[in-house]
Design a protein that fits this description.
The chain is mainly α. It is built from four helices and two strands; from the N terminus they run αβααβα.
């Protein structure tokens, strides 16, 4: 009786979990695309995780939002994404994109204030 339970439920479940892990890993380490386009995205302060993913998806930086959700949650990143203006390349992997968002690797601008001549 126990062997039938193992064969009918546990083995297929294990196979599905291994397959899902492989697909997620493949998604996580491969670039979004090979065109190496640069995209500037703004994540406003107070933006939730799902809205952030929608912003990235609209900018064509995410191929599969469900795998991106799974990857971000597995890295415990969903509540650690920082607001700001980001310059992201499509040659980055989803894992690299998540790392930049969590680190807060935002764009910075150099501003020169001229001296006032007297």
């Amino acid at each position: 009786m126990k062997n039938k339970f193992v064969n009918k439920l546990i083995v297929p479940t294990g196979v599905v979990c291994i397959l899902l892990a492989f697909i997620t890993l493949h998604y996580a380490i491969n670039p979004v695309d090979n065109q190496n386009r640069t995209v500037i995205v703004n994540i406003p302060r107070g933006t939730g995780f799902f809205h952030t993913v929608a912003i990235l998806e609209k900018a064509d930086l995410i191929k599969n939002k469900y795998l991106f959700y799974l990857l971000a949650i597995s890295k415990n990143a969903q509540s650690h994404i920082k607001a700001g203006e980001y310059e992201l390349a499509t040659s980055l992997s989803p894992m690299d994109i998540i790392d930049k968002l969590v680190k807060g690797d935002i764009l910075s601008y150099e501003v020169t204030i001229p001296r006032i001549l007297r």
